[in-house]
């Protein structure tokens, strides 16, 4: 099947670049964080495109956006495809947005070319995938799949003290006429296109990554409690210096956890020091830990060791280690993976199987329905940066493969779980 007959590549690229104008940064990136004014503007633009194509927009209590092309059997579990519209503070044009725009293009092209799906097909943009404003990320997909309680999600706060609940209420007020769906419903399948966020496809000169699964991830919030003191008068032996305790913990964690094997990924990504004054012994340090590994046994053992090491090296301070995310490695549906590989082959796009090192909403959808992902290359493997880039040809190729797989699902009577 010729890729040019499946999508309008120029429209796809134009819309993707138009979306990148919302939250554009001086360095060419995007700052469009979850539930912000920028995301409100992005919703309005994307909803406008969908309504033009005859699709119906709706949302839910978690501010997930659903754009529905009606099928013949409205009662059958719909097919979902999409990604997210929020970004990192210094993010790029493609992370998340390319997946939503490719999904919208695949569905709009299907409708334009007279394809009536057997059941509803829904383009979705999940709330707060990134976790940059509100931590942890993937709140929308976790709420949808029942993995996190909506009340717990609403209680989380950003750096300014604004709760997710307050931001959600304000967000919904911007769309007073948008119908609300129940939080979570049965799905027939889920597809997600994304830039790789790594260098493997580019290095192998492959256009399509058939994602086999996502490596496991654990995150922790660690709080070290000491005591303030005068930097000029308090003896070293009498200090309960929270920053010194943090330095010991960080050093041993990097040395031991970071050296487990070549596949381990250990990161201390955010550190907050109190009172953060030049002549005061720090009384409190809060820091984040991000741990990833494809082997769940290794991941679990490393997570337990992190908690033990923090407690061993905190003295004379107190320490609290709070697990935030516990997401085991998963495998995507083999039939959908085979369909992606076959579509790439038929369209003559070089492809390869690839494990996702980054987390995605598809991880959570895979627990409730058949799910799969398509990767396309990004220049130098760079993502979560303002110079993030994907070639127009690669975006079009990924969207065309997505469109072919979607048609195989949507024009068939069913897919069994």
UniProtKB/TrEMBL annotation:
Q: Which GO terms describe its molecular function?
A: hydrolase activity, acting on carbon-nitrogen (but not peptide) bonds, in linear amidines; metal ion binding
Membrane recorded as keyword: no
Question: What SUPFAM superfamilies has UniProt attached to this entry?
Answer: Bacterial exopeptidase dimerisation domain (SSF55031), Zn-dependent exopeptidases (SSF53187)
Q: Which residues bind Zn(2+) 2?
A: 95, 130, 384
Domain Peptidase M20 dimerisation: residue ranges: 213-315
Which superkingdom is the protein from?
Bacteria
Cofactor binding note of this UniProt entry = Binds 2 Zn(2+) ions per subunit.
Q: Which residues take part in binding Zn(2+) 1? A: 84, 95, 194
Q: Which PANTHER family match?
A: ALLANTOATE AMIDOHYDROLASE, ALLANTOATE DEIMINASE-RELATED
Q: Which family does it belong to?
A: Belongs to the peptidase M20 family.
> Which named protein is this?
Zn-dependent hydrolase
Q: Lineage of this protein's species?
A: Bacteria, Pseudomonadati, Pseudomonadota, Alphaproteobacteria, Hyphomicrobiales
């Amino acid at each position: 099947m010729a890729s040019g007959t499946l999508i309008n590549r120029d429209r796809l690229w134009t819309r993707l670049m138009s979306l990148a104008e919302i939250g554009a940064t001086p360095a060419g990136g995007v700052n469009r964080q979850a539930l912000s004014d920028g995301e409100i503007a992005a919703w309005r633009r994307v909803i406008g495109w969908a309504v033009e194509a005859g699709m119906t927009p709706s949302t839910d209590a978690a501010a997930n956006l659903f754009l529905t092309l009606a099928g013949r059997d409205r009662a059958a579990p719909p097919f979902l495809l999409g990604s997210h519209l929020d970004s990192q503070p210094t993010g790029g044009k493609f992370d998340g947005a390319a997946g939503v725009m490719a999904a919208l293009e695949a569905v709009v092209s299907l409708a334009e070319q007279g394809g009536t799906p057997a059941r509803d097909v829904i383009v979705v943009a999940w709330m707060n995938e990134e976790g940059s404003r509100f931590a942890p990320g993937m709140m929308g997909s976790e709420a949808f799949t029942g993995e996190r309680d909506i009340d717990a999600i609403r209680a989380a706060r950003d750096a300014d003290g604004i709760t997710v609940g307050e931001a959600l209420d304000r967000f919904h007020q911007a769309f007073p006429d948008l119908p609300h769906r129940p939080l979570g419903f049965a799905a027939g399948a889920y597809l997600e296109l994304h830039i790789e966020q790594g260098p493997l496809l580019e290095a192998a000169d492959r256009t399509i990554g058939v994602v086999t699964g996502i490596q496991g991830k654990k995150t922790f919030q660690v709080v070290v409690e000491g005591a303030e003191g005068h930097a000029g008068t308090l003896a070293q032996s009498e200090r309960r210096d929270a920053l010194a305790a943090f330095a010991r913990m960080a050093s041993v964690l990097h040395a031991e956890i970071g050296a487990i094997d070549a596949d381990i990924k250990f990161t201390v990504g955010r550190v907050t020091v109190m009172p953060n004054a030049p002549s005061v012994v720090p009384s409190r340090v809060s820091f984040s830990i991000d741990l990833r590994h494809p082997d769940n046994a290794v991941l679990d053992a490393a997570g337990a060791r992190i908690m033990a090491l923090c407690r061993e090296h905190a003295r004379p301070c107190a320490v609290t280690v709070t697990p935030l995310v516990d997401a085991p490695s998963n495998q995507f549906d083999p039939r959908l993976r085979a369909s992606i590989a076959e579509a790439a082959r038929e369209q003559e796009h070089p492809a390869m199987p690839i494990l996702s090192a980054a987390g995605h909403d598809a991880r959570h959808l895979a627990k409730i329905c058949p799910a799969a992902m398509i990767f396309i290359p990004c220049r130098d493997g760079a993502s979560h940066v303002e110079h993030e880039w994907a070639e127009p040809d690669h975006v079009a190729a990924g969207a065309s493969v997505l469109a072919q797989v979607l048609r195989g699902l949507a024009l068939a009577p069913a897919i069994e779980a």
